Amino acid sequence: MDVQTMFLILVSAYTYYFMDKVLKSNPKDGALTKNEKIQVIILLIFNTLISWAILSFGWKKKLPIKSKQVNRYVKVILVSLVVIAIIAVFIAIILSATIRKSHGQ
């Protein structure tokens, strides 16, 4: 098993552990605490879709406010990742064109 797969499995397992810990420790629903926000954002950045599914569906019935916040964060992160990818493609095209031009092709 390669390192990337191991990393995704570990992040997914931690996401489930974190979701379950918050579910058991917070009998009342409310907004994510500062510490929870930081952990949710980091988990969503490193393992976007799997972490989103675990957190969103795990909290949906008992902690719907937290679940909605996770859904908002995942939308922002996905849009940000798409924008970064588009910018990276444009930079690659510009660099490729510049290199070809400088080599006389």
Short précis:
This protein has helices at residues 3-25, 34-46, 48-59, 64-102. The chain is mostly helical and 105 residues long.
Describe this structure as you would to a colleague:
- With 105 residues, the chain is mainly alpha-helical.
- The chain has one domain (3-102).
- It is 83% helix and 0% strand.
- The longest helix is centred in the last third of the chain and has 39 residues, at 64-102.
- It starts with a helix and ends with a helix.
Number of domains: 1
Tally of individual helices? 4
| Main sheet makeup | none
Class based on secondary structure composition and strand pairing: mainly alpha
**Radius of gyration from the CA trace?**
19 Å
Distance between the termini: 43 Å
Sum up the overall morphology in one term.
elongated
Which segments are poorly predicted (pLDDT under 50) over 5 or more consecutive residues? Answer: none
| Average pLDDT number | 93
β-strand percent reads under 5%
Q: What sequence of helices (H) and strands (E) makes up the elements?
A: HHHH
Percent of residues in helical segments?
A: over 70%
**Overall number of strands:** 0
Which structural traits does this protein have?
single chain, 105 residues, mainly alpha, 4 helices, 0% strand, elongated
What is the topological layout?
Blueprint: H1 3-25, H2 34-46, H3 48-59, H4 64-102
Helix pairs in contact: 1-2, 1-3, 2-3, 2-4, 3-4
